[in-house]
Amino acid sequence: MMSTRRFAAVLLLCACVHMTQADIEYDDYEAGEKVPEGGTEVDPRGHRPVSRGGGGYTAPRQGPPPVSGRGSYRVRPTAAPLVPKGEQEKDVQPDAGGCTHASVQMGLLCPTGCELKTALLKQESNVRREVQKLKREVDELSRSSNTVVTYVVDMSNNLRERQQVRNENGNTVTEYTGELEEQHAYVKEVVDSGFPSNIRLLQSVLEKMRQKIQKVEKAILAQRDECKEPCSVSCPIPVVSGKECEDIFRRGGRDSQMYLIKPDSFLPAYKTFCDQTTQNGGWLLIHNRMDGSVDFGRRWDDYRRGFGNVAFSVGKSQCQTPGEYWLGNDRISQLTKMGPTEVLLEMQDWSGGKVFAQYRQFTVQGEASNYQLAVSGYSGTAGNTFLDGANELFGENRTMTIHNGMMFSTYDRDNDNWIPGDPTKQCSREDGGGWWYNRCHSANPNGRYYWGGAYTRNMAKHGTDDGMVWMNWKGSWYSLKTMSMKIRPFFEE
Ligand SMILES: *[C@@H]1O[C@H](CO)[C@@H](O)[C@H](O)[C@H]1NC(C)=O
Fold first, then answer.
1. How far apart are CA 228 and CA 388, in angstroms?
2. Ligand 1 site, residue 395, Cβ cutoff 6 A
3. CA 275, CA 284: separation in Å to the nearest integer?
4. Which of 73, 375, 434, 482 could make a disulfide contact with 491, Cβ separation 3.0–4.6 Å?
């Protein structure tokens, strides 16, 4: 009986000490399921290796090749139509935007803070839960320590009784009492020294968390205020417009900015950002990441329609372009099927390094084919992840990370090649965004945005490399600072 209670007391103490240690890092509430320690972070992770008895890997059948051949564009005329730089007429279009509306037209202007607000609100509830839990545990602990204190008091009384008995009965119980005294001393010491300080520590952790939550609440309130009114920002839209950015360039639109384009005469025009300087311009920005302000962990419908901010407010009705966005799979498909199209992927790390990957042919099939991807003709400095997969992997493992020929997957629509039909094997659920996942990736431009670059398994929600990864440049455990994808009708220069 004695020794069981003593054991329980020691156990309680251990639990208490352990809890304090674990909760020093209470900021880490996003980590979700913890992955066992020990994995070195240099390990490539993009693939899902075949395990004994697990479903095997069969390379998927290839889809149609990318649209190739001569497009409708000839070499650019040497003397482009003259529009004096800086004197392009600008038509100011008032542009209403809002935080609660998805930017269907891709032109809604909204402070990126609105997205931030949503993210914060999401995290807030997590923290709240954690604090509640912690509070319950602290209460529990206080209660049990009270029980232990009562127990010690009982024991002290018991000891006194025993001492009396000893006086009466001489040596018969000396041995037993000696043991009792020893235990009493031990437990009393534990209770006097260990418990209060541990509980104090826990309480201070709790207090710090409460303060943090208050700060977050203040920040959210400020954001809410800012987002209450639909943001009314005017972004000048140049008068010059066209089918896409190359068309606009040839019509004299030489500034890199937001333009109105109308690639299909049967579909409404929409706004997009044109890069008219890189490699002689004509690039239509279909994807942009630069500050983590937009959530890319989205549904199929969002990826189909497009989301994010082509332009965003920087206060005082000032407008800045481009923001973070995904143009939308329907639009990307429609644009790349009009004729041969090239794609340029540019990226930057957190110390100023820049690389690019370019494919001379890039086609995305329509929704009926789940936006199947086809590329060819690589050049660049970033590494050919789309066609070759991750250089760090070998054999089947590398084949699993090739993106060419893959269909698009989102967390609510699984078209990847990781045991199709098994709902527990979905790349998009684990790797953070919608993408042309295979089993799973060597490039993950729509992954989670990690500030600062290096991240670890334990920081990732599912222990997978869910960052904005380009394995053939920085490996699995480095999330890039910026990434973008631009397309242009292909023409021989
Ligand atoms: C594939 O990856 C797994 C684990 O990552 C490894 O054990 C296996 O040897 C790899 N296979 C090849 C062919 O490299």
1. 48
2. yes
3. 6
4. 73
- Count other Cβ atoms within 10 Å, centred on residue 287: 21
State residue 286's pLDDT score. Answer: 97
341 class by beta-carbon count within 10 Å (0-12 exposed, 13-18 middle, 19+ buried): buried
Q: To test ligand 1's pocket by mutation, which of 42, 394, 398 has the most ligand atoms within 8 angstroms of CB?
A: 394
List the one residue out of 410, 345, 325, 404 whose CA is nearest residue 372.
404
Which of 106-120, 236-250, 370-384 is least confident?
A: 106-120
- pLDDT tens for residues 316-355? 767 888 999 999 999 999 999 999 999 999 999 999 999 9
Whole-number Å distance between alpha carbons of 167 and 220: 70
| Residue nearest atom 2 in ligand 1 by C-alpha distance | 49
pLDDT given for residue 230 in this prediction: 57
CA of 415 to the centre of ligand 1 (A): 24
Question: Where does the pLDDT of residue 186 fall: very low under 50, low under 70, confident under 90, or very high at 90 and above?
Answer: confident
Choose one of 42, 394, 396, 397 to mutate for the ligand 1 pocket test, by most ligand atoms within 8 angstroms of C-beta.
Answer: 397
Q: How confident is the model at residue 283 (pLDDT cuts 50, 70, 90)?
A: very high
The Å distance, Cα 63 to ligand 1 centre, comes to: 27
Q: For ligand 1, is residue 43 a contact (CB within 6 Å)?
A: no
pTM summary value: 0.67
Q: Whose CA is nearest to atom 12 of ligand 1?
A: 394
Lookup: tokens for 223: 């954001």
**What is the identity of the amino acid at 31?**
A
User: Using a 6 Å cutoff on CB, does residue 276 contact ligand 1?
Assistant: no
User: Is the CB–ligand 1 distance for residue 397 below 6 Å?
Assistant: yes
